[in-house]
Design brief:
Helix content: 25-40%
Distance between the termini: 85 Å
Strand content: 5-15%
Largest sheet: 5 strands, mixed
């Protein structure tokens, strides 16, 4: 059509001289050359018929191009790279500005005035060929290791077989905690909680009890998470009788306390499981009997470790505190 033909043809003066250039652009290079040659044949005659005394002539004939005039892949690639780089830079800057995730001790100290006692590495970091272990209402992936016989082996998450970095972190936590009880001369009560489930709270409670027992201290670990208890499964002790049974008057202290000796370890501590899941755990944990229970244990143990539910999900931990 005429409109398509007009879109294909362009003409302009060459550097403000009397020479002007006609360019024909189209998807078919041979067709473009034919159109340009046709214009070169017709145009001088057409100019002579309009303007008398002119002598328009062809300076350069049209030729079939050997490569496309558009797109210029080199220029397009550079422009695309620059645009992509700018977009990624803007995205990275915005992500950094609006990111409120706490990943390091420095991030924690910016939003919290309390000191960081220790930073424990993730002993069950996700990877290929990993296994699942269960936390507070959800399952979490942990790394498996292959033995010399080719069988997969779950990593050691508590006791003396944990990684060197984790072991040193818990020993640092133990030391920092000992310096934190300036007003306590006898028994120390330590509660462990977390913001959300699956963050390693119960594992930290077990490892803290283990490291404290290495000092030849009398340590007892109590599972105060009566909604979804996990300590009994982790340590291989009886689930009942437990704390819920004592707070409801069904069991005595002697019936609850169990001796926990982690496999292949000489160091040991004592454990009280959570017991049967009660319908009203927060009422039991905030009762006067719970206060007397802790006072009774203070006369028998050097350290009392409480494994509490996550603060961000239920209010049981705040009631115990």
């Amino acid at each position: 059509s005429i409109s398509e033909l007009e879109d294909m043809i362009s003409a302009a003066s060459v550097e403000s001289t009397e020479i002007f250039e006609v360019i024909v652009t189209g998807p078919d290079p041979a067709e473009a050359e034919k159109l340009a040659s046709a214009i070169a044949y017709i145009l001088p005659k057409r100019i002579d018929s309009i303007i008398e005394g002119t002598s328009a002539r062809i300076v350069d004939a049209a030729i079939v191009p050997t490569k496309p005039s558009f797109p210029n892949y080199t220029v397009a690639t550079l422009i695309g790279f620059l645009i992509g780089f700018l977009l990624m830079a803007v995205f990275t800057i915005l992500q950094e500005v609006f990111d409120i995730t706490i990943r390091t001790e420095e991030d924690m100290l910016q939003v919290c005035k309390h000191p960081v006692l220790a930073s424990v590495p993730d002993m069950g970091a996700p990877s290929k060929g990993s296994y699942y272990y269960y936390g507070y209402g959800n399952k979490r992936r942990g790394t498996q290791k292959k033995t010399s016989s080719g069988h997969t082996q779950a990593p050691v998450l508590f006791g003396g077989g944990i990684s060197f970095a984790a072991s040193e972190a818990y020993k640092l936590l133990r030391t920092k905690l000992q310096f934190s009880f300036t007003d306590e001369s006898t028994s120390r009560v330590i509660g462990l909680s977390s913001a959300l489930s699956g963050e390693g709270k119960s594992l930290s409670a077990v490892n803290l009890a283990y490291t404290l027992s290495q000092l030849d201290k009398k340590v007892i670990l109590i599972d105060c998470d009566m909604r979804r208890p996990t300590l009994a499964d982790k340590l291989g002790v009886r689930k009942t009788p437990g704390l819920s049974g004592y707070l409801t008057g069904q069991h005595t202290l002697e019936e609850m306390i169990q001796y926990c000796n982690i496999k292949n370890e000489e160091t040991a501590f004592q454990v009280i499981a959570a017991g049967q899941n009660p319908p009203n755990p927060i009422e039991l944990l905030s009762s006067e009997r719970m206060v007397k229970f802790l006072q009774l244990l203070r006369g028998k143990f050097d350290f009392i470790i409480l494994d509490l539910p996550p603060v961000g999900e239920v209010s049981d931990a705040m009631a115990v505190a």
